[in-house]
Predict the structure.
Amino acid sequence: MKIALSSQYFKFIVSAIILSFAVPVSAAEKSVPVSAAEKSLFERLGGTYAIAQTVDHLVDKIYENDGLNANPILKAIHDDKSTKAGFKVMLTNWVVTRTGGPQIYKPDMFGRGQPLKEGHAHLNISDREFDIIMNECKNTFYAFNVPDKEIGELMADLESFRGDIVTRKE
Ligand code: HEM
């Protein structure tokens, strides 16, 4: 009896250890992977308020970028005063979700919150336009003193979406 109990206890401990390292598949798909010991990017960036502040700055720069506004589809969205505030909310939600914060970027009944491939299919985006956005992202991270390590992780993760977003080959 004594041996049976301790073997059960042993199994319990082993299962608990294994479970504590297991990452659910959905979380792994939605977030930038981090090692078990490291804090999430969300935490290292300073959470929702810090992320929202950088998104606020970034979207203002994007809306006034002449290179992007040469694409008439982008210009029409940027000229429409009803789009900017909502875009900032959705982009903040996406970054919060993607960096390992609360999983708040979700599809809604208005067609918002789609995966990036679906959400950008109608925009006719080129590699050059993608590069312009990447440059604006990097400038924004420098403007807010994001450390080099985190900039490297963010830029590599954004780059991994190029194939989903670029639909115009020049
Ligand atoms: C990895 C880079 C990018 C990320 C993470 C990203 C993320 C997002 C997110 C989360 C949204 C909101 C979707 C929604 O409202 O449901 C969005 C919308 C949008 N994105 Fe991006 N995006 C990226 C690259 C680009 C590029 C390169 C362009 C243009 C050159 C672009 C232009 C837009 C526009 C115009 C919208 C608004 C679409 C609409 O209102 O119909 N994005 N993006």
